[in-house]
Write a structure and sequence with these properties.
Mean pLDDT: 81
Radius of gyration: 16 Å
Order of helices and strands: HEEHH
Structural class: mainly alpha
Shape: globular
Strand content: 5-15%
Strand order of the largest sheet: 1-2
Number of strands: 2
């Protein structure tokens, strides 16, 4: 049997660059040890600005993306809940 997994983007954020770098290296090394070879063209170490999910991301610039989401007319209570939960999770991990 062959099991395939497609993993696109992982985004880590933290206020302490050393913590973020250590986590990045641990995840990268664990993936390699498990045989999940990252695409070198997508592998980016922690830095002030990144591109992920076809978005240019820098600290404090997510507000335009958030506004774009809230301006959508096809939102549901479930999608709003998931979006809020994700934002809360990101906020809680960046302390």
């Amino acid at each position: 049997m062959c099991i395939s997994a497609y993993l696109a983007d992982f985004i880590g954020s933290h206020n302490d660059e050393a913590v973020l770098t250590a986590a990045y290296e641990d995840i990268r090394d664990t993936c390699l040890a498990a045989g999940f070879i990252p695409n070198p063209g997508k592998l980016v170490s922690p830095q002030a600005a990144i591109t992920a999910f076809n978005c240019d991301l820098t600290n404090g610039t997510a507000s335009a993306r958030v506004a774009k989401y809230f301006n959508r007319t096809d939102r549901t209570a479930l999608s709003d809940s998931g979006f809020d939960e994700y934002r809360d999770l990101v906020r809680s991990q960046n302390v």
